[in-house]
Design brief:
It contains four helices and no strands. By secondary structure, the protein is mainly alpha-helical. The protein has a domain of about 60 residues. The N terminus is likely disordered.
């Protein structure tokens, strides 16, 4: 699990709660659409040059807040949920906060 001090634990928990609630109450494809849109919405910002890891996290979190995903669940995904999803991407190895 890759997390630096700037991690927003509440956002990560919000993303967990969101996924659990909607997993049990909607078709799984809807969560997949939201997840895919969020990843596509932040990956270019993530790949851009940043002076350090904290700057990368800050830029991705700002971009995540501004992403307008599609699908039935998009209107329920608050900023903390969208930012928390990015921390999940980091934990899954889909985004790395540190330069390699």
């Amino acid at each position: 699990m890759e997390c630096i001090s700037a991690c927003n634990a509440n956002g990560s928990f919000d993303a967990d709660a969101f996924s659990r609630f909607y997993r049990d109450n909607t078709m799984s494809e809807e969560i997949d659409v939201l997840t895919r849109d969020m990843h596509h919405g932040v990956i270019d910002t993530h790949r851009s040059d940043h002076p350090d890891s904290l700057a990368r996290v800050d830029a991705v979190m700002t971009q995540a807040a501004n992403v307008h995903p599609s699908g039935a669940l998009a209107k329920y995904a608050r900023v903390s949920v969208k930012q928390g999803m990015c921390h999940h991407f980091a934990n899954e190895g889909r985004l790395r906060w540190r330069k390699m």
